[in-house]
Amino acid sequence: MATKQTKRRSLLGSKLSSAASNPSSAPAEDIASNSEKSGNASHRAFAKLKRFFDRSTIDTEIDEIQDLSDTDLKPLKDFNEVVANYPKVHPYPQVVLGIFTNISQSFVNQANVDKGISSLFDTIKRVYEFLAEEDTPKKMINKKVTVDTSAKPSWYTYTRPVPEPTADTPPKITLDTSATAALDTLAKIAQVTSDSTQFIRNYSTTKHFWKRTGKDTLSETQTIVNACAKTLDGLMQQYREPKEDDAENAEIQINTYRGLGDVSLEGLACADGAGLFDSRRCLDGTRTDVLTEIVSWVYNTNEDVPRILWLNGQDGAGKSTIAHTIVRWFTDAGGLGACFCFARDRLVERREERIFTTIARDLAESDLAFRRALADAISKDPSLKTTYDVTLQWQRLILEPLSKVSGRVVGNVVVLIDDLDESGPDTSRSHILSLFTSAAAVHLPANLRILLTSRPLPDIEPVLRAVSHVKVISLDELLEESARDITFWVQQDLCRARDIGNTDIQMLVERANGAFEWARLACDYIKPNRPGQTAWERWEELMALESKGRRTLLDAVHEQVLDGIIPNDRLTVSRFQSVMKQVMSAKKPMTIDALNVQRKQFPNEEDLYDVGIIVEFMRTLLVGIHNRSSPVRLRHGSFYDCVTDPERSPTYFVCPPSELR
C-alpha cells in the first residue's frame, strides 16, 4: 500500500517474542483473585503462599533499585535548562528537541533505575553529554538559509517581456542540506534513546517474563544493552563525521532491534491503509507559523492546555499535509503516535466502525507497555476485537490502557484523525464528535493530544467551536500566510517555466485563494511541454476559468487538467469513466495488475482492455501508478467530488456516489 504505517518499534526485538501467549505469564494478581473466588481451601492456601512470595519479590526488587544522584542527572538537567532558550526558528528542530526534553524529564522525575540496566542509563547520559558538545543542536539550528523568494534563479532569462512587481515577497527561512541531514540523524538518536528509555521503564516486567520462561536474565539484558549502546554510539559518530552511506546503515542497525511481538493482538478488526502518507509533507520553508503553533501545543505541559486541536479549512487548503508532517516528525523522532485517515473514495469500507481499534493497534506496535495493557483488556473481553461500538472502543481500547501506562509512556501521545469530513454522511461521524465534545473530554489524560482535520462542514463546525476544550486553527483565516507559502511553492515548482514571471505567479496565487491543491494542479498543467503551446498560454487558460453554481474553481482546474490528459472523443472518455468507476468502487485500493485481472471478468468485450492506457497518464490526479504493483488511489478527495457530480464535471462525470458503495 502507498501509505506508510509508522514503523517505530521497541528495541526489545525478538527477545520478548511470546510473553502474552504463554499461560505462565498471567499476572499473579489474577491467580490470587481467581483462587479466592473458587472457595476451595487448598486454592486459598496457595493464594496466600503466592502473595507471600510476591511480597518477597517486591522486597528483592527494592534492593535492586539504584537511585540516580545529582551527578548522574546533571547532563539531563543542564539540557532541559539550555534547550528552553534555543531559538524557535524552525518547527522540525522543535519536535526533535522536544523528544529529548521528555526523555530527560522522565528520568529527573523518577530518579532511579534497576541496577541490572544502570549501564544503559550511562549510555543515555552520554547522549546528553554529546548534546552539550559545543551546543550541538543549537549549532545545527543555526545552519539555516534565508531564501529570497522575490527573485528567479541567477541563470533564469525570460522569453517574453514581463513587468516585475515592486514589492518584495518576504524571505523564507529554510534548513540547508547539511542541517536537514544532521536533524535526521539527531531524530534517529532521539528515537533509539526513547526506545532505550521505554526498555528501562518496562524492565521489571520484562525481567519477570524472562525468569518465568527460564531464560538467562543477565545474558538477555546485556545483549539488548550492548545493542543500544552500539547503535547510539554509531549514530553520534555519524553526526560528528557524516558519510554518504551512514544513513542507510544506521537505519538497518535501528531496525535490527525493533519489533514487539510478545503479546498477540490477532483478530483485532482494523482498517487497512489508513495510516500516514509519505507523500504528504510540507515543503521546507512553508507553513512554518502553523507548524510551530501545533508543535508548541503538542509539548505544552500546562494542566489546562486543550487535549484536542481542530485544524480546519477549505478543500485543498493543506490541512492533511500539515498534520502528516507533524506526526511523521514526531514518530520518526521516537514519539508515541498514530494516524487514522478517512477518504471519500473508501466509504464502502465503513472506516468509522474501526477507527479506535486501528489507532489502538498502531499505538501498541510502538509501545510495549501500551501493548500489554491493550492485550489485557482484550483477553478479559474478546468481543472488543470486533465491536463496532466506537464509544466502547474509545473507553476500553484507548483511554483505559493509556491510564494504566501513564507513568511509563515518555512524553505525550499524539493521535491524528485526518479528514473527518470524508467519513461519509453526518451519521457516520456523529458518535466520534460526541466523544470529543462531551464533558468527559475535558478530563482526557494530560499526556494525550488529539489532532483533528476536516473542512468546516455544518455538522462539524458548530459542535467543535462550541466547546472550550478544543483548540481551533482555521487555515481560511490565515490567507496571508497561505499566500506567502503558495508563492514560495509555485516559484520553486515553475522555476524553469521561462515565460512565467513573478507578476504571473502572483496572479496565480490570487486565484488559488489559499488552496494549495488548486496551485499544485495549476503548476502541473502549466509545466508540460505540449506541442504548439507555451507555458504562458496555458497560464492564460487557467486565468480564464470561472466557478458556476456547484462548480468551483477547483472543479474547473480538474476539468482543465483532464482536458490535457484525456482526448475529448467518445471512446476515450467512456474508457476513462469505466476505469475510474472501477478504481473508486474497489473495497480496497487495487494495483494496475489486479484491476486488469478483475476487468477480465467484465461481461462486455469492449471493456477488456488494459487499464494502464488510462491511469498511467493520470499522475497529476492519482498515486500508485509509478509501477504496476502499487495500489492505485486518488491523490486528493476533491477529485472524487468533482467526477461524481454531473454539474461539477459535465464532460468527465463518472457516476453518482451511490453507485460506488
TrEMBL record:
Residues 307-456 form the NACHT domain. Residues 32-41 have a biased composition (Polar residues). Residues 1-41 are annotated as: Disordered. Residues 11-28 have a biased composition (Low complexity). Keywords: Repeat. It comes from the Eukaryota. Signal peptide: none annotated. Pfam families: NPHP3_N. This is NACHT domain-containing protein.
